Amino acid sequence: MIYTVTLNPSVDYVIHIDKITAGVVNRTEKEELYFGGKGINVSLILAELGIESTALGFTAGFTGEAIENYLKTQGIQTDFIRLDNGFSRINVKIKSGEETEINGRGADISENKLNEFFSKIDTLSDGDTLVLSGSVPKSLPDNIYECILKRISNKNMRTFVDAEKNLLIDTLKYKPFLIKPNQAEIEDIFGKKLEKTTDILECAVQLKAMGAVSVLVSRAGDEAVFVDADGESHILRPCTGELKNSVGAGDSMLAGFIAGCQLSNDDYDYAFKLGLSAGSATAFSDGLAKKDDIFKLFNSFYS
Ligand SMILES: Nc1ncnc2c1ncn2[C@@H]1O[C@H](COP(=O)(O)OP(=O)(O)OP(=O)(O)O)[C@@H](O)[C@H]1O
Ligand SMILES: [Mg+2]
Fold first, then answer.
1. Does the Cβ of 106 fall within 6 Å of ligand 1?
2. β-strands 158-162, 178-179: how paired?
């Protein structure tokens, strides 16, 4: 089973409004609701591609219930720890020419609830896949990803980590199967601008030497760089099209890659291409990508 972890899931309330004025009543032209968080996005794209997964993490209140119900309607299994107080956060995204976001903090997670979560992690077994992605809520220790990987280090599991700087670096000693920094994240790790693809490749190779089994660097509309588990490097341009929304493109890429490994019995070149196609299909859609769009891009750019 593939398990995704979303520590701080959200309901994203997206409002479209011509002009927003402070201090008066504003009315929306259109509004949308999305259920998300990075791990959940990975589960949603996996489901689009026909791959089963179970979403783990923490939910609270009526928003938490809504998130779980939505995932079930999408054929995703859920096994969240339910928190007794508060509610899963609501992120408000205001689209009025420029974009303004107000992200909620989310419900606090007690030590008891964290231990319940760890007990759940302890039930994962050989052959399972675990995807850790996104930031860590303030009420949790910031070495949580490292703690999770430590707990499963005696098991033969594939792990994927998509996180920032120390959160990511601290997991390398547990040899994650794949890490997926984006351009800004890899520059942040190495503390310098990396403009050329060859510079990025050099840094990806270094991250592999530091413990990552493979390294996938996404760079939005620029060439992506991938050093696979066998040490082979792959460099490809993403698909071209009309950019609509890049939120979740990285999560879609990760899910496309995981699905690609499963569908091809670990043909890493295929997985990289399916990852790129899924990322771009989301970048070219209003919400997350649909299966047909992913395969259309795959067929026209990479086959
Ligand atoms: N403008 C774009 N044109 C084409 N493809 C894109 C574009 N933006 C993103 N993509 C696709 O999505 C992949 C991931 O994009 P990006 O590097 O922006 O991820 P990210 O910053 O991790 O995103 P997020 O964390 O918001 O999910 C790219 O490698 C590419 O395949
Ligand atoms: Mg990202």
1. no
2. parallel
Cβ-contact 99, 17 below 8 angstroms: no
Mean pLDDT, range 127-135, rounded to an integer: 96
Q: Specify the 3-state DSSP secondary structure of 252.
A: helix
Find where tokens 């992120």 sit: 91
User: Sign (positive/negative) of CA torsion 196, 252, 90, 124?
Assistant: negative
Residue 174 is given by DSSP the state G
What rounded mean pLDDT belongs to the chain?
96
Please name the residue whose Cα sits nearest to atom 29 of ligand 1: 218
pLDDT 10s digits, 53-83:
999 999 999 999 999 999 999 999 999 999 9
| pTM of the complete model | 0.97
Q: How far is the CA of 288 from the centre of ligand 2 (A)?
A: 14
- Any catalytic annotation for residue 293? no
Contacts with 116 (C-beta within 8 Å, 6 or more apart), sequence order: 81
Check whether 286 has a pLDDT greater than 90.
no
